[in-house]
Amino acid sequence: MRTRTLWESFGFALAGLRYAWRTQRNLRIHAAITVVVITLAGLLRFDALRWAILTLTVALVWAAELLNTALETVVDLASPSPHPLARIAKDVSAGMVLLCAIAAVLVGVALFGPALWALLNLWG
């Protein structure tokens, strides 16, 4: 196997992102939510620590979704016809994404909750 250049490696990574974007509805949903939370964080003028926590949380959910896509693709390659173990692998991988998404919601409540609560109190 020939050694790849750094630019070739980036190209492969971008091709993977493009594939996931085209084929994974949930990734596009995560993207829409990401735009909303980044916009809201900007409007609420998050400090550096909150931005760091938000960035890591978003990256965790995206990484889990991409890992899920990779695992499902490998399972489909290894087991083209339905198999109970293939189903378990896919279900566990989907569970990983769900767990990360739930954690992200809880982090979001901690990050956004106090500021949004304060805004609601101003209006009420």
- Major beta-sheet overview: none
Mean pLDDT: 95
- How do the SSEs run, as a string of H and E? HHHH
The count of helical stretches stands at: 4
* Helix-strand category: mainly alpha
Number of spatially distinct domains: 1
The Cα radius of gyration reads 18 Å
Overall 3D geometry? globular
Number of strands: 0
N-C termini distance: 66 Å
- Give the C-level CATH assignment: Mainly Alpha
What fold name goes in the CATH topology slot? Helix Hairpins
Q: Helical amount among residues, as a percent range?
A: over 70%
CATH architecture heading: Orthogonal Bundle
Strand content: under 5%
- What are the segments in which pLDDT stays under 50 over at least 5 consecutive residues? none
Q: Which terms summarize this structure?
A:
124 residues; mainly alpha
Please explain how this structure is put together.
The protein is an all-alpha fold and 124 residues long. The chain has one domain: Helix Hairpins (Orthogonal Bundle), CATH 1.10.287. It is 87% helix and 0% strand.
The gist of it:
With 124 residues, this protein is an all-alpha fold. The chain has helices at residues 6-23, 25-43, 48-78, 84-123.
